[in-house]
TrEMBL record:
Record-linked PROSITE patterns: RNA_POL_BETA (PS01166)
Entry similarity comment: Belongs to the RNA polymerase beta chain family.
Keyword list, A-Z: DNA-directed RNA polymerase, Nucleotidyltransferase, Transcription, Transferase
Segments forming domain DNA-directed RNA polymerase beta subunit external: 485-551
GO biological process: DNA-templated transcription
Upper lineage: Bacteria, Bacillati, Actinomycetota, Actinomycetes, Mycobacteriales
EC numbers, comma separated: 2.7.7.6
Entries under NCBIfam families matching the protein: PRK00405.1 (NF001616), rpoB (TIGR02013)
Any one GO CC term of the record: DNA-directed RNA polymerase complex
Native species: Mycobacterium mantenii
Name this polypeptide is given: DNA-directed RNA polymerase subunit beta
Domain DNA-directed RNA polymerase subunit 2 hybrid-binding: 612-1028
Residue ranges of domain RNA polymerase beta subunit protrusion in the record: 76-392
Superkingdom in the source lineage: Bacteria
GO MF term set: DNA binding; DNA-directed RNA polymerase activity; ribonucleoside binding
Length: 1144
């Protein structure tokens, strides 16, 4: 890669294949859907002479639409797109959808007269994919996740009968669309069939219904006793009886006729409109049953031969035969299928998911077209009058807006976005559900190797159901995931690359990428470690090997491939490490890791957050906002920078140039960094000097101790941008108005608002401050004579309005960095009833603080327990204080030793090294690793990185500091001194540089306190949660704890005046203000609600005092309360609507 950073690698293996485009799974699929020229070229290169795009496929399926008499028809062809309506930036800014108008050619034919009318018809705006593989829907960036589903096809299964302990077999023919066909052998040794999940029948009934005679059945299946016994038990005499028998089972209660039964059976399995195996299903059936080998796939319905071959396969499977010879002479193995095998699970990528949705919309439109054909005058009909595009547009909108697979893009950092686009989900429509998914489907399967990462998956209820595509994997036209291998011929490894599906791989013997080979490509060892079908591992002679992995990182995903020393980490912690890298927030200054894996550059470029030069040339002009490049072909290109934009997750996306004017750049070179990148490499955290030791118990249980230097020097500071929005609408009482003229507000509060009532850019704001002034008309009341006089003099201006201004939410603060105003007067598109819309962007600089979560790349996470002054931190012999102290207990039982090895190599990289002579441990080191200056960045690729002996050797070869001292010994430990006393600690401590990330779990977002606030309207109890500015719930079990300790008065106070004693809580406030004693608590509102509930059940409940006197519960608030509240300025009407949870 031109212009790549100077990172030296410990890799010993040469990789014959570059990592493919990491977004290809999204982009290629969408290009297939729209039939893009690039996709057509790729299809032609594969040998596909007449490639059909996804949209064309739907139109061909739909055409022609005929009326009920067949006298008229409507056909569609040639889908094409106009230019997109607005660029990506404008769509984000104005809440628009990034879409292009779709047109098709519609042809209406009157079969009676032969008249043809052809028109170009607009089919709605079609959402287009951006260069980054995302969609902009209503201004927000979304990703369509690929779905893992069971492939259509034929599946054989076996089970053991509980009563007889017999081995039984069954088979399902699963289509892409249509009725299921199931065959099984029961414990009585008869073969049965279930059509469309209905009652079981003898299989011979179906064969007879297809026109087979008893003699033909005996001739084909005479070898099988169970088929003969099934035939004997079958009472139907011929085809007609069999058809009627099937019809009665499928349509009980309807009078059967031979014709209707024949039509029903044909429609169920043999008509394309009702039954569709899809190309992939046809391919799977042919492959499994050995039919039509080598023939192109033309039909996607079932054939009679499929049914017969499936029955024969099932019978032979039950009888324990190993192979079956089909009529064409092909011999196929007879075996059951593993439904979790990746040969039987395929991907529905974005193009197919959208195509299915368009198909749904088109079929709805088809019904409308048919109806219009019958109702409209034949002479006046044109394609335009027949077509109603609403169902199609609605179906597409519904998919992007509400589908489980169309997700709000994860934009925490570039890696999280890249991983989101490569995600594989078994959930969603047509997939599994969390509740029904068992352990088998979640488990790691041998066929996942090189296709889906065995490590990266969520930790919660979705574990194993959501995965990530492996680095080198690609998706073939059928939707199966392929992975590349190097061809091995007679023990010689070539650079010829073959992509294999999981099915194909099962037939071969595959060696791993780190098997030693000589310069001529021959295996150095006579017996090679290989894997065979079902994940078996063994040693075989080198001549038996068929293929070899292309790279050691072939089996893992992008995020997992960015964990150095992954091979030394326990899988559970590696999973956490891969997931937590996606949660890292972009820091003010990004810093690439000293110890990387070589994946950082490629991941950053493909994530699309860096700016890459399209053509080679010379930099002509550079500023913070743009870079101009004069290309070698004489064209000039200006690249604009994104400046302090808000991401979907409130993090700050900012780009800055890394080239100078006059500098030469090559095509593909990074010329500007984005968030979380440095010199074009992914940079999610900081290299910090770490000591691994306990410290006064302050880093107990994964707590972390930090140096104050990281706070003062903004080392772990991040910028977060919040968007606040308000609109002015038309109400029943009049229009709302955005204004500076707000009632009952002092000039001090309005100081930062401009003449329109909008806060100025650059203003410092904190919670409660007004961002946009807005007034709403109040409900009209009976006017006093004075008010009528004022209204007469001043007109409408004297009308009552209330303050509904946009204020900074509780707990937030920052600086206003941007304002966007949209109004009807400026011809901006706004929702109905909205006259003006204002967006205010507030940026907050968050320094690292106690309670923030930090993590390394090995699942070593923790919360900051204490921030110490720099002078109190332990320091090295030369006086350098460490940045961070981690506890030693975080390593042994978690078995993530990679963090310690990273720490050692980090120290080596920071210090520089020089290897004298030729020690044994350095025999395999590449030449560029013999010596290096301080701050040399290194990479240790997964499964092919630095070995332990190399690490130990390099630690003893580190360069001395400026005083000539080598502070860390060959074992990676140093003598540390206590910053408080200056005394050395009694034992050497592991010291080095570790890459630490600040995660999105920030204490500022979580810490919350309330004194008074909103109350639930019904129960009058405080609301719950930070978002509602709620209180702490004192629940049932907490009450028990109080009762157990006899704290009666405390409990009474908690349940009344601190909660829902509406009178008491105001009187308490008054007593505190006046310095008086706290009054007696009253009756809680929730008790009154209980009484009302009982009264609603027609139970008359009276409340009695201890002496038996009836207590009257007053309905309204008393006058004292009203008076006290008015005097104290408390708003008693501050009620919020209650949720179901509040009442629980």
């Amino acid at each position: 890669m031109p212009g790549a950073p100077n990172r030296v690698s410990f890799a010993k293996l040469r990789e014959p294949l570059e990592v493919p485009g990491l977004l290809d799974v999204q982009i290629d699929s969408f290009e297939w859907l729209i039939g893009a020229p690039r996709w057509r070229e790729a299809a032609a290169a594969r040998g596909d002479v007449t490639p059909v795009g996804g949209l064309e496929e739907v139109l061909y399926e739909l055409s022609p639409i005929e009326d009920f008499s067949g006298s008229m028809s409507l056909s569609f062809s040639d889908p094409r797109f106009d230019e997109v309506k607005a660029p990506v930036d404008e769509c984000k800014d104005k809440d628009m959808t990034y879409a292009a108008p779709l047109f098709v050619t519609a042809e209406f034919i009157n079969n009676n007269t032969g008249e043809i009318k052809s028109q170009t018809v607009f089919m709605g705006d079609f959402p287009m994919m951006t260069e980054k593989g995302t969609f902009i829907i209503n201004g927000t960036e979304r990703v369509v996740v690929s779905q893992l589903v069971r492939s259509p096809g034929v599946y054989f299964d076996e089970s053991i009968d509980k009563s007889t302990e017999k081995l039984l077999h069954s088979v399902k023919v699963i289509p892409s669309r249509g009725a299921w066909l199931e065959f099984d052998v029961d414990k009585r040794d008869t073969v049965g069939v279930r059509i469309d999940r209905k009652r079981r029948q003898p299989v011979t009934v179906l064969l007879k219904a297809l026109g087979w005679t008893n003699e033909q059945i005996t001739e084909r299946f005479g070898f099988s006793e169970i088929m003969m016994s099934t035939l004997e038990k079958d009472n139907t005499a011929g085809t007609d009886e069999a058809l009627l028998d099937i019809y009665r089972k499928l349509r009980p209660g309807e009078p059967p006729t031979k014709e209707s039964a024949q039509t029903l059976l044909e429609n169920l399995f043999f008509k394309e409109k009702r039954y569709d195996l899809a190309r992939v299903g046809r391919y799977k059936v042919n492959k499994k049953l050995g039919l039509h080998a080598g023939e192109p796939i033309t039909s996607s319905t079932l054939t009679e031969e499929d049914v017969v071959a499936t029955i024969e396969y099932l019978v032979r499977l039950h009888e324990g035969q190993a192979t079956m010879t089909v009529p064409g002479g092909t011999e196929v193995p007879v075996e059951t299928d593993d439904i979790d095998h990746f040969g039987n699970r395929r991907l529905r990528t974005v193009g197919e998911l959208i195509q299915n949705q368009i198909r749904v919309g088109m079929s709805r439109m088809e019904r409308v077209v048919r109806e219009r054909m019958t109702t409209q005058d034949v002479e006046a009909i044109t394609p335009q009058t027949l077509i109603n595009i609403r169902p199609v547009v609605a179906a597409i909108k519904e998919f992007f807006g509400t589908s489980q697979l169309s997700q709000f893009m994860d934009q925490n950092n570039p890696l999280s976005g890249l991983t989101h686009k490569r995600r594989l989900s078994a959930l969603g429509p047509g997939g599994l559900s969390r509740e029904r998914a068992g352990l088998e489907v979640r488990d790691v399967h041998p066929s996942h190797y090189g296709r889906m990462c065995p490590i990266e998956t969520p930790e919660g209820p979705n574990i194993g159901l959501i995965g990530s595509l492996s680095v080198y994997a690609r998706v073939n036209p059928f939707g199966f995931i392929e992975t590349p291998y190097r061809k091995v011929v007679d023990g010689v490894v070539s650079d010829e690359i073959h992509y294999l599906t999981a099915d194909e791989e099962d037939r071969h013997v595959v060696a791993q990428a780190n098997s030693p080979i000589d310069s001529k490509g021959r295996f150095e060892e006579s017996r090679v470690l290989v894997r065979r079908k079902a994940g078996e591992v063994e040693y075989v002679p080198s001549s038996e090997v068929d293929y070899m992995d292309v790279s050691p990182r072939q089996m893992v995903s992008v995020a997992t491939a960015m964990i150095p020393f992954l091979e030394h980490d326990d899988a559970n912690r590696a999973l956490m490490g891969a997931n937590m890298q996606r949660q890292a927030v972009p820091l003010v200054r990004s810093e690439a890791p000293l110890v990387g894996t070589g994946m950082e550059l490629r991941a950053a470029i493909d994530a699309g957050d860096v700016v890459v030069a399209e053509k080679a040339g010379v930099i002509e002009e550079v500023s913070a906002d743009y870079i101009t490049v004069m290309a070698d072909d004489g064209t000039r290109h200006t690249y604009r920078m994104r400046k302090f934009e808000r991401s979907n997750h409130g993090t700050c996306a900012n780009q800055s140039p890394i080239v100078d004017a006059g500098e030469r750049v090559e095509a593909g070179q990074v010329i500007a960094d984005g968030p979380c990148t440095e010199n074009g490499e992914m940079a999610l955290g900081k290299n910090l000097l770490v000591a691994v030791m306990p410290w006064e118990g302050h880093n107990y249980e994964d707590a972390i101790i930090l140096s104050n230097r990281l706070v003062e020097e903004d080392v772990l500071t991040s910028i977060h941008i919040e968007e606040h929005e308000i609109d002015a609408r038309d109400t029943k009482l009049g229009a709302e108005e955005i204004t500076r003229d707000i009632p009952n507000v002092s000039d001090e509060v309005l100081a930062d608002l401009d003449e329109r009532g909008i806060v100025r850019i650059g203003a410092e704001v904190r919670d409660g401050d007004i961002l946009v002034g807005k007034v709403t008309p109040k409900g009209e009341t009976e006017l006093t004579p004075e008010e009528r006089l004022l209204r007469a003099i001043f007109g409408e201006k004297a009308r009552e309005v209330r303050d509904t201004s946009l204020k900074v939410p509780h707990g937030e603060s920052g600086k206003v960095i941007g304002i966007r105003v949209f109004s009807r007067e400026d011809d901006d598109e706004l929702p109905a009833g909205v006259n003006e819309l204002v967006r205010v962007y507030v940026a907050q600089k968050r320094k690292i603080s106690d309670g923030d979560k930090l993590a390394g790349r090995h699942g070593n996470k923790g919360v900051i327990g204490k921030i110490l002054p720099q002078e109190d931190m332990p320091f090295l012999p030369d006086g350098t204080p460490v940045d961070i102290i981690l506890n030693t207990h975080g390593v042994p039982r978690r078995m993530n030793i990679g963090q310690i090895l990273e720490t050692h190599l980090g120290w080596v990289a920071k210090s520089g090294w020089n290897i004298d002579g030729s020690p044994d441990w350095a025999a395999n080191l590449p030449e560029q690793l013999r010596h290096a200056q301080p701050n040399q960045i290194v990479s240790t690729p997964v499964f092919d990185g630095a070995k332990e002996e190399e690490l130990a050797g390099m630690l003893s070869c580190t360069l001395p500091n400026r005083d000539g001292e080598v502070m860390v010994d060959g074992d990676g430990k140093a003598v540390l001194f206590d910053g408080r006393s200056g005394e050395p600690f009694p034992y050497p401590v592991t010291v080095g540089y570790m890459y630490i990330m600040k995660l999105h779990h920030l204490v500022d977002d979580k810490i919350h306190a309330r004194s008074t606030g909103p109350y639930s309207m019904i129960t009058q109890q405080p609301l719950g949660g930070k978002a509602q500015f709620g209180g702490q719930r004192f629940g049932e079990m907490e009450c028990w704890a109080m009762q157990a300790y006899g704290a009666a008065y405390t409990l009474q106070e908690l349940l009344t005046i601190k909660s829902d004693d509406t009178v008491g809580r105001v009187k308490v406030y008054e007593a505190i203000v006046k310095g008086e004693n706290i009054p007696e608590p009253g009756i809680p509102e929730s008790f009154k609600v209980l009484l009302k509930e009982l009264q609603s059940l027609c139970l008359n409940v009276e409340v009695l005092s201890s002496d038996g006197a009836a207590i009257e519960l007053r309905e309204g608030e008393d006058e004292d309360l009203e008076r006290a509240a008015a005097n104290l300025g408390i708003n008693l009407s501050r009620n919020e609507s209650a949720s179901v949870e509040d009442l629980a």
